[in-house]
């Protein structure tokens, strides 16, 4: 007799076996069908289980078997010899299940017999699992590999799969000829490490757009890569010489990892416009290695020091990504660069790291460098700031910056002076710190509140210098005085979801643009001071009498979704513009007699215009 031996499945599966006396031989379960389903699932999982790992606890080795659970392998966590610890959490559960008595094997009377039997079963099952794993590997058990957001199907010899459609990414071990048998060519082809076919002309057919090369074994020659390829990845271990012409002139984008052959002048053709040097790249970049055709350069954690002329003067955009660990002394980034994006770089920026020619700087999530005065040079006009880790101080942002964009996750207190007085345009996303009076300087004339913005706009937060306000799907309710009276133009963007009761849009507003807003407009939503209303494509509100007030003189209509009715357009309107996409029927009296000018986009709109007042003159906006 084995005393206090309890086998169970944790949490969701209620299968418990216990032998306290030889006469007891019951299996208590919550559902007979559950046992069958559980065993089927575990048997299927065992086929994929590698070596001697437990199915339920993949980090634990198999130790034993429970003979009453259809020989399911068990680990230490599956079996407890302390009946109290095993059964205590089950008492409540057992009170709520009905006993189902199933016949089981007679209880064993000898621990040594159990050990001998289970060890024999373990060795047998382990050998079976190893054999099954080998068979699965031979049959390409892992038929897909993920890389850079793409899922590649690994061809393993079954040509029938290529008669199907729907696979756009293929990984090949040893044979590219099969690609030509596809009904539709894949967009992306990956040649895996060890690929050993000569790539003569036509083996990789024309039409392939993106090619990834691992540690292939055959030398590349001119025409190995078809001219239709526009993007190439040279992956870790790639070990082929890249003489002139190997990479064809059709290639526009080149990603280079830790390749083993030295790049030389003309390895990269002049037609390449974007180069990405990825983690582990370990080549010296002397002048000319990156050709003058390159416009955009991305650099990760490369291993060789950059020097002057490593980056050609044609490059206009540089992105230094997380892990970049090179000193940026004066001249490393050439004066041709206009846009610089910085991730979590590891070397401290100093004055002159960024040339004065740069006009746009992005500080991405994780950027962790101190921005003392002069680090961002005075040539910068536009600054994007993400969730950076160092606190901004006065003079971090130079006075020459005119546009600041605070992106999702920005988590800095904006006390007076952090945003300098030179800034004219401010974009705010889902920032994490509360705005206070003087967070926004009085020089700002345009504010955009993007979707997700979640800060209260009490009186004075938006200063009186602001003239133009764009509002997206913000999360805090607007109240009277959220928008100052100095604002003259308001744009309610797609997704705006606030009730516009009287006074929310102040009387100073003259021009109103409305997209696909989600709350119904009511009388007095639009103040009587508004003279121009533009309803953009997607606007989906009924325009009953009085919604557009009689102060409006000009009405512009895009691809609106609701039909216009009589009195949708008030008699005060003198000019109507039908922009591209407008396709609603204008029946008699829709356009009131007050209208003097009707602008239409194209001839199609002439067909939907019904009788119009004789006083109206029709003009065409699109003369083509």
What structural category arises from helix and sheet content?
A: mainly beta
| Overall helicity | under 10%
Determine the number of helices (DSSP H or I, runs of at least 4 residues).
Answer: 4
Terminal Cα span: 96 Å
Report on the biggest sheet.
Answer: 24 strands, mixed
- The residue ranges in which pLDDT falls below 50 over 5 or more consecutive positions are 1-51, 63-72, 76-118, 129-142
Rounded to the nearest angstrom, the radius of gyration is: 35 Å
Mean pLDDT: 82
Please provide a written account of the structure.
By secondary structure, the chain is mostly beta strands. Among the domains are: 5-138, no CATH class; 402-474. Helix content is 9%, strand content 19%. It contains four helices and 30 strands. It has helices at residues 32-48, 83-87, 91-94, 111-138, and strands spanning 5-8, 15-19, 28-29, 64-66, 72-74, 79-80, 144-147, 150-154, 169-172, 188-191, 210-213, 231-234, 253-256, 274-277, 296-299, 317-320, 339-342, 360-363, 382-385, 403-406, 425-428, 446-449, 468-471, 489-492, 511-514, 532-535, 554-557, 575-578, 597-600, 617-620. The chain has a 24-stranded mixed β-sheet, with no helix packed on it. A four-stranded antiparallel β-sheet has the order 3-2-1-6. It has a two-stranded antiparallel ribbon with strand order 4-5. A hairpin with a 2-residue loop joins strand 7 (144-147) and strand 8 (150-154). It starts with a strand and ends with a strand. 26% of the residues are buried. Residues 1-51, 63-72, 76-118 and 129-142 have low confidence and may be disordered. InterPro entries: FNIP, FNIP_repeat. It comes from Dictyostelium discoideum. This is FNIP repeat-containing protein.
């Amino acid at each position: 007799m084995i005393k206090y031996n309890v086998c169970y499945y944790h949490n969701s599966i209620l299968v418990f076996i216990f032998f306290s006396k030889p006469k007891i031989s019951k299996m208590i379960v919550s559902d007979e069908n559950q046992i069958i389903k559980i065993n089927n699932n575990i048997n299927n999982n065992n086929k994929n289980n590698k070596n001697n790992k437990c199915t339920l606890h993949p980090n634990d080795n198999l130790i034993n078997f429970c003979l009453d659970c259809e020989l399911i392998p068990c680990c230490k966590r599956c079996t407890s010899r302390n009946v109290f610890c095993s059964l205590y959490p089950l008492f409540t559960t057992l009170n709520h299940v009905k006993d189902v008595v199933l016949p089981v094997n007679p209880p064993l009377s000898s621990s040594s017999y159990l050990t001998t039997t289970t060890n024999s079963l373990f060795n047998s099952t382990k050998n079976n699992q190893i054999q099954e794993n080998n068979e699965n590997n031979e049959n390409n058990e892992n038929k897909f590999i993920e890389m850079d957001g793409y899922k590649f199907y690994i061809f393993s010899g079954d040509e029938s799969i290529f008669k199907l459609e729907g696979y756009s990414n293929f990984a090949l071990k040893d044979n590219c000829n099969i690609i030509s048998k596809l009904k539709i060519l894949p967009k992306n082809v990956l040649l895996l490490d060890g690929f050993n076919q000569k790539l003569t002309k036509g083996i990789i057919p024309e039409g392939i757009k993106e090619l990834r090369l691992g540690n292939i074994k055959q030398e590349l020659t001119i025409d190995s890569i078809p001219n239709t390829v526009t993007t190439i990845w040279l992956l870790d271990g790639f070990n082929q010489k890249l003489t002139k012409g190997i990479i064809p002139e059709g290639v526009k984008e080149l990603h280079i990892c830790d390749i083993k052959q030295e790049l030389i002048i003309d390895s990269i053709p002049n037609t390449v416009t974007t180069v990405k040097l990825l983690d582990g790249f370990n080549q010296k970049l002397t002048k000319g290695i990156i050709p003058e055709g390159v416009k955009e350069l991305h650099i990760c954690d490369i291993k060789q020091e950059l020097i002057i002329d490593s980056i050609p003067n044609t490059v206009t955009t540089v992105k230094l990504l997380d892990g970049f660990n090179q000193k940026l002394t004066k001249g490393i980034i050439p004066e041709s660069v206009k846009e610089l994006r910085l991730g979590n770089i590891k070397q401290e920026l100093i004055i002159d790291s960024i040339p004065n020619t740069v006009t746009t700087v992005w500080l991405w999530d994780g950027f962790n460098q101190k921005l003392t005065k002069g680090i961002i040079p005075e040539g910068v006009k536009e600054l994007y700031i993400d969730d950076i880790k160092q606190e901004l101080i006065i003079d971090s942002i130079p006075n020459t910056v005119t546009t600041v964009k605070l992106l999702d996750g920005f988590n800095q207190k904006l006390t007076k002076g952090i945003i300098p007085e030179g800034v004219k345009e401010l974009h705010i996303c889902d920032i994490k710190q509360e705005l206070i009076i003087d967070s926004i300087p009085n020089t700002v004339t345009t504010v955009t509140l993007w979707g997700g913005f979640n800060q209260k706009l009490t009186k004075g937060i938006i200063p009186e210098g602001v003239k133009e306000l764009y509002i997206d799907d913000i999360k805090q309710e607007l109240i009277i005085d959220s928008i100052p009276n100095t604002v003259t133009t308001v744009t309610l963007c797609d997704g705006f979801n606030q009730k516009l009761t009287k006074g929310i849009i102040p009387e100073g507003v003259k021009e109103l643009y409305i997209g696909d807003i989600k709350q119904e407009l009511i009388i007095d939503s639009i103040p009587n001071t508004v003279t121009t209303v533009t309803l953009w494509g997607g606007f989906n509100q009924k325009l009953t009498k009085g919604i557009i007030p009689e102060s409006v003189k000009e009405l512009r209509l895009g691809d609106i979704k609701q039909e216009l009715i009589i009195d949708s357009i008030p008699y005060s309107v003198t000019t109507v513009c039908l922009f591209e996409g407008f396709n609603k029927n204008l029946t008699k009296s829709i356009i009131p007699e007050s209208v003097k000018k009707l602008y239409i986009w194209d001839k199609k709109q002439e067909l939907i215009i019904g009788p119009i007042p004789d006083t109206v003159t029709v003009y065409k906006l699109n003369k083509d």
